[in-house]
Amino acid sequence: MAMPLLVSVVDDDESVRESLPDLLRELGFAARAFSSAQEFLASESAGNTRCLILDVAMPGMSGPDLQRELALRRQEIPIVFITAQPDDALRPRLLASGAVECLFKPFSDMALCEALHTALRLR
Amino acid sequence: MCLPSTVGASSSHDDAHSNPGMENDLSRILDDLPALVWTALPDGDVDFVNQRWCDYTGLTLDAARALGWQTTIHPVHRPELAERWRSSQASGQPVEAEVPLRRFDGEYRWFLVRSCPLAGASTQLLKWSVMATDNHDKRSDEAVCARWWLLSSGREAHFRAICDGIPSLISLVTPAGEVEIVNRHVLEYFDVTPESLKGQTTTDTLHMDDLPKVMAAWQGSVEAGVPYQVEARRRRADGVYCWFHMHGFPLRDVQGHIVYWFLLERNVDERKRAVALLAGEKHVLEMVATGVALTKVLDALCISSDATAEECSSSSVLLLDRTRTSVGYVAGPGLPSSYTRSLEGRAVESGEGPCVLAASLKTQVIVSDIQSDPRWQSGDWQALALAHGLRSCCCSPIFSLTGELLGVFTIYRREVGSPTPFHQALIEQFTHIASIAIERTRSEEALRRSEAFLAEAQHLSSTGSFSWRVATGEVTWSEEAYRIFELAPALPVTLELLSTRIHPEDWLAFKQQVERSRRDGRDVEFEFRLQLPNHSVKFLRVISHRSRYESGDLEYAGAIQDLTQRRLAEDAVGKLRSELARVARITSLGALTASIAHEVNQPLSGIFTNAGTCLRMLNSDPANIDGARETARRTIRDARRASDVIMRLRALFGKKSGTMELLDLNEATREVIALSLSELQRSGVALLTQLTESLPRVRGDRVQLQQVIMNLVLNALEAMRGVDDRPRQLVIRTEPDEKDHVRLTVEDSGVGFEPQGVDRLFDAFYTTKSAGMGIGLFVSRSIIENHQGRLWAVPNEGAGATFSFSIPRARDGVTGSDKPDAIPRPAVTDAMHALRRS
């Protein structure tokens, strides 16, 4: 049996870290949650992650900061941004920078599914 | 020595009688003279008259004898002449007087009467010889005098006695130019004996510079055989040159050949100097008057002085600098510049050199021999002066009218010697002129400087000045005033001219102000606008002060200030300020909105995800009941979290405390209006305030209530922003309301709102995107509700909307006025802080 693909979640909001991994596992992925970008970078998962679900606004290193850092490290992980900021201008900017999708909280599980499939088809 | 024809005179007992032929010649010549000639005995009896005398007076010699020649003299002048005659008789000096003589027809003409006492061997007076020349037309005919002299000097003694009486140099010169006979004055002037003059020519003592001129005149005269006149300088025995008016004319024998040249030379030195001095003075003063630079004026003054003074002297003016502690400019065009330059910059205190010493001591310093004077043995001045050929000098301080030292006037000479009285007179004259020149130039400079300062200041401050003499209508403008009005300088200022510049809307008011000033004579201050030909507008303020002119006429002196730049700057600042306020308002409200959305979206997101997961867990086979239970629990927790956010938000606007105080709503309103005036003006909104006097006071938080009023005003402006088809009008009204309430109303003529939308206006999160209007009204309403009042809005019958709030008036006996009551404070920063604190 093939190993499930690892999807990592980076969000400073605890309720997201609690809820999203369960959903991801229900969708058939392996899931790990990190409360900050630094924690993710320091973990072993950084190399195995097939898709990254990344919060935009976080204290310290922000989502886009992590995106840039990964690009510098040549770790091309597809990224699905999630954000609670209702900013219409944000999405096109993030997509232009190479993100697969940007989901505004609250988002449905279907929307997340579609984004994940898009991300993994790219690989 | 010989004369062409010798003379005796008269009919009396004279040696000349021994030669009747000579007497005839003499009589003929005397008769030819264009002068009246007679001789008189000491007792006054006339013993000879020439034919012209007879012709002029209409009297014969016998008649003259019988009547006394004095009767021809004008009676008024007789006593004076008689007196001079008597004193002359005692001293033996000749008498010269201008008196009117009576003509045959009874008319009097002015004559120059010269009379010489003729002394015999015993020095006793023999007789008077008198000659009268007609100078009625101010014509003095020296030739007449000279010929008379010649003819009346038949013999040496006789000749000398007469011509010595004439105060001029008189010489008889051969056509070859050799001196034959001279009078006493010649011998004295040149300090020579008659013998030493023999064979000398008259040109020997002439000034080199004048020689060509004299020779030319002489030669021209010889060729044509006519008299000549020329002015030239002759060297005196002491080496000094004096100016002479030389008059030469030929003497002919009976055949008409020129046998002698008769030279009459009158000393005109003083006149010449006076004229030169006057001309120099005039020239210098003209330069001062026309504003020529002081250095040039002083140079000209020195040149003038050099021209007036005698040879081998050069003058200089040493000018002190502004601090009066050192030498500034040294003028001295007749001196080598290497000398004058070396004096410049010397400290007055040092006393180096006599000029500087004269400045230091403020007194005249005379150095009669630079070489031997012990005072200058040390220092460099002596060597310097000697190297430049200077031998003596006289340095005199130049004082101002008030006695201030201005500089030093110095006359240097290339000869050893002390200043003569002539020099001293010259020095006195020139220090005086120099003083005038320096003072005038300095005060002109000061005036020019102060005028320049004034013009500059006017330009910098955009302020023009004017004067207006009401009686004559005479208006004088400064240069800047013309510039402000953009009119050509020096155009006569008239109301007609002003009407081409003053803004048509202000013209009537302007004319009324002018008329009022003319009538009342009060000080005036008002503002008006200009509309220039290019349609640009200027804002001006005029301030004028009444003053009475010497004549008692009313005169205004005033200033016109161009406020345009300031007004534009104020407008720009006001615009910027309200723009900033607007941006800040939008930004902070936007930030608040985003923050609230973020805080709510987070738990909502959890709810969504958990609910989705829960369903998937229940639908899986087998159903993951434990997982579903856990996710359901998390769903409830997140929902509570969302609810908490809303609770906190409500708490934020519901329970914060502020300061309650007794306040006048009118006053609070006026303060808000004052703050919004520039915004109102800029938005082109007409404001109408209807604040009811003696409005009951209210109890509340002044700042919060003012925020509400401001919010209503800004909303009204916002609503009128796009309105162009009707006046943008804002009415702010205060009035007592029912049930002991006080009401404030803000009515606009803006876009208004649909009646059915009125409730949504006050929704907290309604219209978050359009300048935060919703949150503003929401906050406003909560403030008013916390003042136990209410805030509502109604659409107007016509255009626009009316927002009102009504709050209870303060009751008597309300306690706790010192204690802050609990009252909400919906400040944005606090709100964000409170949300974040979750």
Task: Give a summary of the structure in a few sentences.
Chain A is 44% helix and 20% strand. Chain A is an alpha/beta fold and 123 residues long.
What does this protein look like?
The complex is a heterodimer of chains A (123) and B (838). Chain A contains six helices and five strands. Chain A has helices at residues 14-26, 37-42, 45-48, 63-72, 90-96, 109-122; strands at 6-10, 30-34, 51-55, 79-83, 101-104. In chain A, strands 2-1-3-4-5 form a five-stranded parallel sheet, sandwiched between helices. In chain A, strand 1, helix 1 (14-26) and strand 2 form a beta-alpha-beta unit. The longest helix of chain A is centred in the C-terminal third of the chain and has 14 residues, at 109-122. In chain B, 43% of the residues lie in helices and 23% in strands. By secondary structure, chain B is α+β, with helices and mostly antiparallel strands. Mean pLDDT of chain B is 78; it is low at 1-19, 139-149, 764-775 and 813-838. Chain B contains 24 helices and 27 strands. Chain B starts with 19 loop residues before the first helix and ends with a helix. Chain B has a five-stranded antiparallel sheet with strand order 2-1-5-4-3, sandwiched between helices. In chain B, strands 7-6-10-9-8 form a five-stranded antiparallel sheet, with helices on both faces. Chain B has a five-stranded antiparallel sheet with strand order 12-11-15-14-13. The A-B interface holds A 13, 15-16, 18-20, 22-23, 26-27, 57, 82, 84-87, 104-109, 112 and B 594, 597-599, 601-610, 612-613, 616-617, 620, 627, 630-631, 634, 637-638, 641.
Structural features:
heterodimer, A: 123 residues, alpha/beta, 5-stranded parallel beta sheet, B: 838 residues, alpha+beta, 5-stranded antiparallel beta sheet, 23% strand, disordered N terminus, disordered C terminus
